[in-house]
Write a structure and sequence with these properties.
Number of helices: 10
CATH topology: Spore Coat Polysaccharide Biosynthesis Protein SpsA, Chain A
Distance between the termini: 46 Å
Strand order of the largest sheet: 5-4-1-6-11-8-12-10-9
Bound molecules: 1-O-phosphono-alpha-D-glucopyranose
Largest sheet: 9 strands, mixed
Order of helices and strands: EEEHEHHHEHHEEHEEEEHHEEH
Shape: globular
Strand content: 15-25%
Radius of gyration: 19 Å
CATH class: Alpha Beta
């Protein structure tokens, strides 16, 4: 089994729910206090051993590229004014040997189409997918937990959490014969994107995946479905006919920063430490 070294970050979405804040800046660059949301997920990936970050981006997302690039002018000014403590903040050591790659998604056709754009960079290795909107706090991180399960099972792994019935329609939802067995890992036998009724369980997919490269076979020529978009969930559903896919109930605190509610909760949570000092 090869080590997972690449992570795909779909970041081409419009961020409509955060207008007007996202009119001129990408939603992934919205600050959680003093760090942009995207940096949390990139840090999570890098700390879990990822050495190549592949952003699936669009023309409105240049600020993300700038954020992970060097800013020589700013560095020079900080050095000149003796503000050395900020140098590590803008030029983090943990990102030093990480390769950042950007692929433009021509039109926003959905998560499945976004992942497909990375096909030529992945070849036949398993890879991680992180949806940065889901800010997940834990040590070991959610990605590290999924990687541990991957190391044991050698198949695609999907991060799961438990949601109330009323929220199932917002997520991909899985079914498994193992549900109710107090397990943390589940052999998935079905997966449905945003079920409007009769959700198969309360186990919802979070924005963390380890995917076998065979996922591209199922993504290619996949028809759009829910919301008129090409759904990753539909490709995983097809994959289930041929391969084992495991769902893993990770440990951690999740904030859905794609919604104003979750974003406010994340800031409130992280502000507590600052206000206490
Ligand atoms: C996407 C996936 C969905 C998953 C969710 C997790 O939906 O399509 O299956 O449950 O991410 O955040 P989105 O939030 O992009 O609508």
């Amino acid at each position: 089994m090869t080590k997972i070294t690449k992570a795909v970050f779909p970041v081409a979405g419009l961020g409509t729910r955060f207008l007007p804040a996202t009119k001129a800046i990408p939603k992934e660059m919205l600050p959680i206090i003093d760090r942009p949301l995207i940096e949390y997920a990139v840090e999570e990936a890098v700390m879990a051993g990822i050495t190549e970050i592949i952003f699936i981006t669009s023309h409105t997302k240049r600020a993300i590229e700038d954020h992970f690039d060097q800013n020589f002018e700013l560095e020079a000014k900080l050095i000149k004014s003796g503000k050395h403590e900020y140098l590590e903040k803008i030029n983090r050591k943990i990102f030093e040997n990480v390769k950042f790659t950007y692929v433009r998604q021509k039109s926003q056709k959905g998560l499945g189409d976004a992942i497909l754009q990375a096909k030529h960079l992945i070849q036949d290795e398993a890879f991680a997918v992180l949806l940065a909107d889901d800010l997940i706090l834990n040590d070991p991180s959610c990605t590290a937990q999924l990687m541990s399960v991957y190391a044991q099972k050698n198949c695609s792994i999907v991060g799961l959490n438990i949601v109330p019935d009323k929220d199932a329609h917002k997520y991909g939802v899985i079914s498994s014969d193992d549900v109710g067995h107090a397990e943390q890992t589940f052999a998935i036998n079905d997966i449905v994107e945003k079920p409007t009724e009769n959700a198969p369980s309360n186990l919802a997919v979070v924005g963390r995946y380890i995917l076998s490269a065979t996922i591209f076979n199922y993504l290619e020529n996949l028809a759009p479905s829910v919301g008129g978009e090409v759904q990753l969930t539909d490709a995983i559903k097809l994959m289930l006919k041929d391969e084992l896919v495991i769902g893993h109930l990770y440990k951690g605190l999740k904030f859905d920063c794609g919604s104003r509610h979750g974003y406010a909760q994340a800031i409130t949570h992280l502000a507590k430490d600052i206000l206490a000092n």
